[in-house]
Amino acid sequence: MGTRVSYPVEVKMKAIEMRLAKVPVKEVMEELNIRNYTQLKTWMRWYRNGEMHRLKQPVGKQYAFGKGPEYESETAKLQAENRYLKQQIDVLKKYEELERKWRQK
Fold first, then answer.
1. What crossing angle do the helices spanning 37-48 and 9-20 adopt, rounded to 10°?
2. Same-domain pairing of 13 and 47
3. E strands along 1-105, which residues?
């Protein structure tokens, strides 16, 4: 496994602009010295999905942006937490039900 390379935001944006201008992938990779074509595909996916913040994050930190979801208000945050806790309770209830059935056999 090779070493990870962190590309500056400018390089990522230039690569996206070139691909939008229909420049072939090989040419973009050669000109900007990008090692892996899947990296270019990932940047394009983020661009299309409006996840521009991901382009600014270092290698390995793509999923930790803001350290959690952003909420519009304290109420929205509490509602999300409530939903999560209810899901946890549901899972425990299912587990208890399965255990009960198993013990009856």
1. 80
2. yes
3. none
Structural domain count, the chain = 2
Structure tokens belonging to residue 72: 């519009």
20-35 burial code (b ≥16 CB/10 A, e <16): eeeeeeeebbeeeebe
Q: Which of 27, 26, 33 is nearest to 11 (CA)?
A: 33
pTM over 0.90: no
5-58 pLDDT, tens digit per residue, is 788 899 999 999 999 999 999 999 999 999 889 999 999 999 998 888 888 877
Q: Examine the domain organization and report whether 17 and 48 are in the same domain.
A: yes
Asked if 34 and 54 sit in the same domain, the reply is: yes
**8 A C-beta contact, residue 62 and residue 54:** yes
Residues spanned by the domain of 80: 70-105
